[in-house]
Amino acid sequence: MRILDTKSFSVPGFKAWGIHCGIKKTDKKDLTLIYSDRDAAMAGVFTKNRVKAACVQLDAAKAKSGKGQVIVANSGCANACTGKRGLADARATADIAARELGVNPASVYVASTGVIGEFLPLQKLEAGIVTAAGLLSPAGWEQAAEAIMTTDLYPKLSIVQEEIGGKIVTVAGIAKGSGMIHPDMATMLCFVMTDVNIASPLLKKCLLSSVETSFNSITVDGDTSTNDMILCMANGAAENKRIAAGSKEQKKFQACLDSVTRSLARQVVRDGEGATKFVEIVVRGAKNPAEAKRAAVTVAKSSLVKTALFGEDANWGRIMAALGYSGVDMDESRTDISIGKAKLVEKGLGQGKAADREAALALKQREVQITIDLHKGKAEATIWTCDLSNEYIKINAAYRS
Amino acid sequence: MRILDTKSFSVPGFKAWGIHCGIKKTDKKDLTLIYSDRDAAMAGVFTKNRVKAACVQLDAAKAKSGKGQVIVANSGCANACTGKRGLADARATADIAARELGVNPASVYVASTGVIGEFLPLQKLEAGIVTAAGLLSPAGWEQAAEAIMTTDLYPKLSIVQEEIGGKIVTVAGIAKGSGMIHPDMATMLCFVMTDVNIASPLLKKCLLSSVETSFNSITVDGDTSTNDMILCMANGAAENKRIAAGSKEQKKFQACLDSVTRSLARQVVRDGEGATKFVEIVVRGAKNPAEAKRAAVTVAKSSLVKTALFGEDANWGRIMAALGYSGVDMDESRTDISIGKAKLVEKGLGQGKAADREAALALKQREVQITIDLHKGKAEATIWTCDLSNEYIKINAAYRS
Description:
2 copies of one chain form a homodimer.
Chain A: E1 2-3, E2 14-19, E3 31-46, H1 54-63, E4 67-77, H2 83-101, E5 108-115, H3 122-135, H4 141-146, E6 156-164, E7 167-176, E8 189-194, H5 200-212, E9 218-219, E10 229-234, H6 248-270, E11 278-286, H7 289-301, H8 303-310, H9 316-325, E12 336-339, E13 342-346, E14 349-350, H10 353-363, E15 367-373, E16 379-386, H11 390-397
Parallel strand pairs in A: 4-5, 8-10, 9-16, 11-15
Antiparallel strand pairs in A: 1-6, 2-3, 3-4, 3-10, 6-7, 7-8, 11-16, 12-13, 12-15, 13-14
Helix pairs in contact in A: 1-2, 2-3, 5-6, 7-9
């Protein structure tokens, strides 16, 4: 597998573009169009929030067909909690794009992100789709990635290539994240495009597996959104022999998909609202994988741990306290905690000032690793998160103004 | 029931005092002593965190006797995650107090709050206990309440009187809170003193019921601590006829206890770290009480909701999103949301700019009420919380320095 520079982002058979159509009050881009020049296999993962935006309801139904050709995404308005009118607006958006691109409306998927409870400005969207359709380009991915941003500071892209079945296959994705990032939802917006030839049931299986170790392993603020989705389109333009289930080709494709989703997930955390640090939390020695993940997520979500990280304070007591209320099987007197290479806690006891000083140095870095060993079993999990800073409060106190 | 001014805080048969003994780096008080002049019935509720401080382990064992006479509490050092030495130090603290006050060590309860992972300075504690024992006073409660404070901005006291069985009975409590406040733990430190005559099993029953609607109904930052406990001592000095289970006297006492614990719980939230607003979240129309509470707690814990409250932004979409991921049975199209008297959402739909403006005015107040009706059943729950401000980050980023 070869990781490409995102500057040369391009996927055979796909075009994209992003523009400002007037949903956002500023002149920032707010409309993305992604187009496959042929029918593609489509798989989707959607938020588990019971309150689902219109686009999520619509796409989840469409995804059952396993087919798709177009994604139209807007930022600035979530079209969530908008009732029947919201659903009609999402359908109308798909119809407009279908008409402009000459495809079946059933092949058009809609995604939205932004403020909840406001209606889509359909006229602006229609004009925007017409314009964007005329600008679609094989090299338009930076624009596309920019136009789905909300509080993101930079666009998120990732692209890899691999030889599969004698053909060079490309797997590439764009994502937006920032706030409301938390495991066990379909997470923010992420669109993955590949020219591999694969049937949609197998594509869905690969996508679900990939999401588990990428978007379902990150947390920014513990909130899960109404609009999050990951869509993956495979249009077969690489003309490889269709990937067989359980084959080594499937493994290769899975590795490519994992690389792209993990890269995008890490970019989302790095760009977490107000984040000053990227934090990897590894829990080892848990009884089973679910407990390993639960322990890591609980530490990652703790406001007290996150503020201590922001303050570069090796306050391991807060980590221990979080493990204690995580609900997993743990025993203080067996637990080890390290920050960076500094072993702060062994068998539940602090290891003194030298370890504290070493940990304090590790905490000054932009990337921090916290390793916890529960010594209760053999399961392990890794969660990526960020610290909680003043900036998070500032961004979220004033989000709508 | 009569609510007394805390300036005349006094409970027959009890004395207290608080001093600075040198645990805290500043000259602030850090040692509290509470003494009953006779053997008292004792009931305790302790943290559910698996990582329990030495004092919690010790007191939970002692509380099985249902008896007690002394509480010695320190702030500045939690004596948590301190292993065998920590347990020995907690025992030694009880022994010193027992010796100074001429009581059985089994009657002395120990409480600690502060930084985790550091050992108690026993010599300073010993000198402090000797000094405080000499200063014990029937009017020493303000000092006692001050000496258990950590990041609290003010001491928390509450006192009521009631005629029970022909006698005037006093129920009074002191508490400390601030960070790490969350339901389903025994919550921070709270000591309740009463001169009522009641057997300890019934006292425990009353205390558990009282905690459910007070300390288990508040959340500041979602973290639960290793040290939290509520101790309730009833010394019988009022000489009422011992309260019988199920009697109207029990109801009267329960009302007094509820008034004190609810007052202290509300004070804890009002003084939440960095809090600028006191927020009451009422969920109605839930399927059952557990779901009502879960929905209210999920909204109360959401960082996005809490920052919007700080920003005085009536961003009801975040409330709806939190309800959606709370896991309770809800249906967006049935849900109503009000802030103050402004009905922002009816049957899942925003009610327009006039309602937004009215809610914005309500959000400018120091006290805010959010009312949610799920229209799924008849159960109801109330949770008290505060907003999430820059100040919370500042306090918790620099807590140990």
